[in-house]
Amino acid sequence: MTSAPSSILNTSKLPALAGSLLERLRAERIRVHAITNAAAQTITANLLLAAGGIPSLTIAPEEVASFTSRSTSLLVNLGTLDSDRRAAIPQAIASALAHAKPWVLDPVFVEASPPRLEFARACLAGRPFVLRCNAGEFAALAGHVATPETVRAFAKAHGTVVALTGAVDLIADGERLLLVENGHPLMTRVTAMGCAATTLVAAFTALHGSALEAAATALLVIGVAGEIAARDAKGPGTFQPAFLDALFNLDSPTLIALGRAS
Amino acid sequence: MTSAPSSILNTSKLPALAGSLLERLRAERIRVHAITNAAAQTITANLLLAAGGIPSLTIAPEEVASFTSRSTSLLVNLGTLDSDRRAAIPQAIASALAHAKPWVLDPVFVEASPPRLEFARACLAGRPFVLRCNAGEFAALAGHVATPETVRAFAKAHGTVVALTGAVDLIADGERLLLVENGHPLMTRVTAMGCAATTLVAAFTALHGSALEAAATALLVIGVAGEIAARDAKGPGTFQPAFLDALFNLDSPTLIALGRAS
Amino acid sequence: MTSAPSSILNTSKLPALAGSLLERLRAERIRVHAITNAAAQTITANLLLAAGGIPSLTIAPEEVASFTSRSTSLLVNLGTLDSDRRAAIPQAIASALAHAKPWVLDPVFVEASPPRLEFARACLAGRPFVLRCNAGEFAALAGHVATPETVRAFAKAHGTVVALTGAVDLIADGERLLLVENGHPLMTRVTAMGCAATTLVAAFTALHGSALEAAATALLVIGVAGEIAARDAKGPGTFQPAFLDALFNLDSPTLIALGRAS
Q1: Hey, is the C-beta of A109 within 8 angstroms of any chain C C-beta?
Q2: Is it the case that residue B219 has pLDDT exceeding 50?
Q3: Cα A56 to Cα A74: distance, rounded to the nearest angstrom
Q4: Which one is the CATH code of A12-258: 1.20.1530.20, 3.40.1190.20, 3.40.50.2300, 2.30.30.100?
Q5: A201, B155, C167, C223 - which has most CB atoms within 10 Å?
């Protein structure tokens, strides 16, 4: 795993960067340990396998440090916070920090439960490379609505990259702000698609020195695969296998042709 | 969420009612909090998303009350009764009762385990709007085999609606008894299809004052989607995505053309 | 459930044996209780349903003995070892031993976590009928790399059958060694395919007196279904439903035509 120094790429180069990171993920068989919610585990593993990486998923508190230390990155998703996950997550984050592994936080439904909000804030103190959230989750964490300015300010204050996903994805660190316009509405009709997509963010942060660009290119790859899958899908049922196939078959020329980032 | 008063519909009107409830589910983005078994979580969420609603799935005891109170209805499924679910279920039911949310009980495999039977009986005391079960589960709970008479008597004694699913679904409250004949054998070859179907029962009970008619129309929608999916499926593998597509695309004219209720 | 005495079949007869065991599984509706990892639960259940059996999946410590005693065999998979599974597995194994039910062990990722390795060794003392593992897991358990000789020696020392899966599957007891060459690389791109396949091993051990031949024929069935599924699949997404369809539709003539065992 070699990490390039943080780059400041012309945004027109992001689709090509996406292609090269995807090729490296496949060549290096990137391993992501994912502590994720019960509905996301299978699709998260299948998405990473389709992309060419190797997932592991255990949530046992006494095992997550070992699994994290032998992975290239860590994903922490708060979607179903049972007692094992509550105990395991701090240990996994500590292991990632101790071994200098990048890690990514996905605070699912943090707006729906006060204890989850408190738990998410404690996680944020561990400085995730990327915080992936939607507008409702951002508002709960930040205490105000998401705008380009508030997202950038939140990223700066917490020393992280915020990847705010929606019809257009907005990715910001304290300085720069990128937009990714790829994607398809059917992605919101398959449970845990966003959670699973965050695994690719985690994988790309291990491959590229700029977490901002890693997050943006990962979301671009997911969005392009979603657009390809939607061409033939008759609904959310056939969309999901088509999405995994599209990700499995995706190459740089297709990403360059279809990627829309600015 | 407006609930019509309990109605006594001519059964020939059930397919049209099914169509209008499905349209309202989509328009109102009905939220169901589902505490369901590990094998059912993904398909339950995907079924509700395909139908047009919004699922949540957390089983954390300290969170389920919040999630239940912001949902339109609650689904409790006993399929994998680990320690978190055992602790969470009473709190979720209490929250549903406190906030006057409809809730539905699915006592999976209750005939296979004495502690589960005892737990299910304690749940029943919370008067679910609908008890969805198969013949084996009913027999374990009731202490005798399911017949139209025993099902009606059980419903009356427990102040609930019994939705007994099988080749023909039998839905009864203490007074009336409805039959729904839609469905396809491939539905029994996909794990947790019945569990997932119960989510739609939970959603419809929030939209219609008669839990009897809500349950019958939800099962009719599921059965019609299953029949459409089976037309092109080559087995249980392709059946599942086809089912979600069919549910996503289902409309009132199709339900009226294909629905068989009496 | 009648078990033939241990047989010593000419390996050319293995595909025909596979077909007859699959037919018996369907006719007798074999029940497997699977304590398996979170990412494997759905596909494990769907694989067994597609094959014609009946799965149950509960991991609650107070329930697994009941579920095991009413099943025809037990599958124990160590993929996500949370506190409930740690407590449940010894009780399920004890129930299998007390009721003379065959049971199968799948020590997933045992090389990645010292506490898991210790737990797996304790399970092995309960003498599983079959230990299903890959080369990395075998090496961790045995303390040396897998070769035909070391696999045979390990099987003899532990009184079990080792089913070592890979590009070619190697199945050995203390005396004989079988090779199964069916399968397709796409099977490694779907999470938990190997875990799910082990359910069929568990089912076949209940139907045939030789655990060696039961394991080999189960893996042959899975491999042939994988080859059929790969013909039309465009990637790992469409591969999975195609695999379940192929298994659902598989018959003896196809197994005899495509099976490659020696």
Answers
A1: no
A2: yes
A3: 10
A4: 3.40.1190.20
A5: A201
